[in-house]
């Protein structure tokens, strides 16, 4: 891949690093690479248990490549918009949890990439913003609503003014703020904690949480209970409980590839 650097640690944590200088602005080719990778995360290796998405350089992602926007018209926009949204959805639908590690700017497409992750760790001086109106486009608000309350989403969209990571969190956004020198260590620590659980259970949990996110309470909780019922027959569920009661480290099986467990 031209714009992504990928490394899989022994713990099962995959590090995906965006690398398109100077600001990781996303062009069509980079969207394709992200969609292909997150759409088939096991191409990295059979032991992927969690992903940390980060970036090289000064910024996480300063938005879309605006040179490509200059050639966009109602006639050719549909295909490009499809490519963009399928990339974000590939990250959201990744079968293992994805942690966004944000430094520098996360603007426009950058904030949508961050909000497509399961959760976000960011530096105090990172910058989150939706400058869409300043460049004559729409988009990003619905993704931002996954991690920020609606009044904050609307403020950011209608003003186009970015907020620092510290301001963003203080205004109600669901981001964890850590100092810059601890960003990758903290994102990796959280990913390794996830990776230490049953790899089968984590994938069942990821699929379950993705499905219940848009359900109302009663329907969603019934769906979660269905996952509990299904997993109660898996050896890892018994091992987790036994290890907890016996105050010892659990010993889980390799990821079960029987799709019976994921058919929720």
Automatic annotation (TrEMBL):
GO molecular function, one term: lyase activity
UniProt cross-references to SUPFAM superfamilies, sorted A to Z: ClpP/crotonase (SSF52096)
InterPro entries documented for this protein: ClpP/crotonase-like_dom_sf (IPR029045), Enoyl-CoA_hydra/iso (IPR001753)
Gene3D superfamilies to which the protein is assigned, alphabetical: 2-enoyl-CoA Hydratase, Chain A, domain 1
Domain of life: Bacteria
UniProt keyword list: Lipid metabolism, Lyase
BP terms from Gene Ontology: fatty acid beta-oxidation
Nucleotide-binding as UniProt keyword: no
CDD domains named in the record: crotonase-like
Keyword Ion transport recorded: no
Name of the protein in its database record: Crotonase
């Amino acid at each position: 891949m031209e714009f992504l650097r990928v490394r899989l640690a022994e713990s099962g944590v995959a590090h995906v690093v965006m690398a398109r200088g100077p600001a990781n602005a996303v062009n069509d080719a980079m969207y394709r690479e992200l969609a292909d990778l997150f759409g088939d995360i096991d191409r990295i290796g059979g032991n992927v248990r969690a992903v940390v998405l980060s970036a090289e350089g000064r910024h996480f992602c300063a938005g879309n490549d605006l040179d490509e926007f200059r050639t966009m018209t109602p006639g050719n926009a549909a295909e490009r918009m499809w490519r963009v949204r399928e990339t974000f959805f590939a990250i959201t639908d990744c079968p293992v949890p994805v942690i966004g590690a944000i430094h520098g700017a996360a603007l426009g497409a950058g904030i949508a990439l961050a909000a497509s992750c399961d959760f976000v760790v960011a530096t105090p001086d990172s910058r989150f913003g939706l400058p869409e109106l300043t460049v004559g486009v729409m988009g990003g608000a619905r993704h931002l609503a996954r991690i920020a309350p609606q009044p904050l989403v609307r403020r950011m969209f209608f003003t186009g003014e970015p907020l620092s990571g510290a301001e963003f969190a203080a205004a109600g956004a669901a981001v964890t703020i850590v100092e810059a020198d601890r960003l990758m260590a903290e994102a990796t620590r959280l990913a390794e904690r996830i990776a230490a659980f049953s790899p089968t259970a984590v994938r069942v949990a990821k699929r379950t949480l993705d499905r219940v996110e848009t359900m109302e309470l009663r329907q969603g909780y019934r769906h979660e209970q269905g996952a509990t019922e299904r997993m109660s027959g898996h050896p890892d569920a018994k091992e987790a409980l036994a290890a907890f009661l016996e105050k010892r480290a659990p010993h889980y099986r390799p990821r079960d590839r029987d799709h019976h467990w994921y058919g929720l």
